[in-house]
Amino acid sequence: MSDCIFCKIIAGDIPAKKLYEDDEVMAFWDIAPQAPVHFLVIPKKHLAAPVDVEEVDDRVIGKLIRIGAQLAKENGVGDGFRVIFNNGKKAGQEVFHIHMHILGGRERPWPL
Ligand code: AMP
Prior knowledge:
By secondary structure, this protein is of the alpha+beta class. It has one domain (about 5-105): HIT-like (HIT family, subunit A). It is about 20% helix and about 20% strand. The protein has 2 helices and 5 strands; from the N terminus they run H-E-E-E-H-E-E. A 5-stranded antiparallel sheet has the order 1-2-3-5-4, covered by helices on one side. Strand 2 and strand 3 (about 35-45) form a beta hairpin. The protein starts with a helix and ends in an 8-residue tail after the last strand. It binds adenosine monophosphate (AMP). Adenosine monophosphate binds near residues 16, 28 and 93.
C-alpha cells in the first residue's frame, strides 16, 4: 500500500528502530512509547485492521504473538506485558496497517 506508513517501514523507505524481521513479520520500537518497553509487531502483508483478518492469516497473526512474547522476554518484561490490538478509529486506531502493541515495564490497571 503506497500510502501506508508501516508498509513504508517494511520497504525501508521510512526508518524504524527494528527489533526483529523475517519474511513475514517485523517488530520495531514505538515512536511515542506509552510504557518503558513499547514496541509494535506487524505482519508484512497489508491488513488494515483486526476486522480484516481472514482464515488465511490465522498462522501469521499467531506468529505475531509468539514473536512479541519472545521479544518481551528478551527486553526484560517477559513476566508482565500487555498485548493490544486497536481496531478502528473509535478504539483509537491511528495507523491502518494491523499492529500488535507490546507494552511492559509499568503497572497499569485493567482496562485502562
Ligand atoms: P494505534 O493507535 O493502535 O494505531 O497505534 C499506532 C502506533 O504507531 C502509535 O503508538 C504510534 O506512536 C506508532 N507509530 C506511528 N508512526 C510510527 C513510526 N514511524 N515508527 C514507530 N511507531 C510509529
